[in-house]
Known about the structure:
28% of the residues lie in helices and 34% in strands. By secondary structure, it is of the alpha+beta class. The chain has two domains: 7-138 and 283-287, Aminopeptidase (3-Layer(aba) Sandwich); 147-273, Gcn5-related N-acetyltransferase (GNAT) (Aminopeptidase, 3-Layer(aba) Sandwich). Strands 1-2-3-4-5-12-6-11-10-9-8-7 form a twelve-stranded mixed beta sheet, with helices on both faces. Strand 8 and strand 9 form a beta hairpin.
Amino acid sequence: MTTRKNGFMIKRGLEEKDLEEIKKLSKICNEYEKIEVKLNWDMLQSRSKGEANDFLYYENGVLVGFLGLYVFNLREAEIGGMVLPEARRKGIFQKLLEQAIEELKRRGIPNLLIVVDHNSESGQRFAQAQVGTQYTFSEYCMELSEAKQQPKRFEDIMIRKAEPEDVSFIVNCMEISFQLPKGDIKPERFHQPDTRAFLVIKGQEKIGVLSVQISDEGAFIFGFCLLPDYQGHGYGGQALSEVVQLLLEEGETKQFLDVACENKRALKLYQDCGFVVTGCNDYFEKKLGSSKNESSVV
């Protein structure tokens, strides 16, 4: 006889059944509030079994609460999640958040970003009610509608797929372009089988990078940057357009990306290449201490 799952569970890695349950829960919540909870499906499908990143709550064998933890660098982590509408106002997500915070303290990560769909009334109320939390910025969610191939204005600008020996340049380029502390980007992210990177080359020189993470949901474009000396010349639009075409040729018709709402230049670049705004996420920052307390994992 199978015992029904009940209560809280912290997991290292997700199995196919877990993903199906999370997808079912997110579908119900999205339809209920007419939103799109940001869950980073590409990352959920490739979770490391060496880290606790997913926090679940069950009632009578049914998943009613989920929180996903997404660590992109050593300074901060993002969370996204939801609770079944009829199971809300019981403190479920608050408990899931507390478990995630304990895990972050154990790792020594000092900042947490709570990601909330701009149109989610319940999510906005929850984030704003957290002690020590403040709104920091918003991002547009964009999806490729109809690719608009940009003219090849620069004959010496080309794209090539990155090789393992290019990872040090990728990390360095992102840290310089995004003004991140040295060592902030995890090099291992670019060695994952579902991640590929494209270098922007001018003549014989590497001047930028654009990365893509592939999942069942489509191709998510991230980390697109050029070194400062090469920004503002129109190279980015040509490079992005070529990568979009390469992905289309490989059958990746669903392409997504996020862009900061205040970054009007990048927004226009993406729109010129055929991307349209499909939603908006607000980010609320909560500063944490650090702790060496271990969290229990099953």
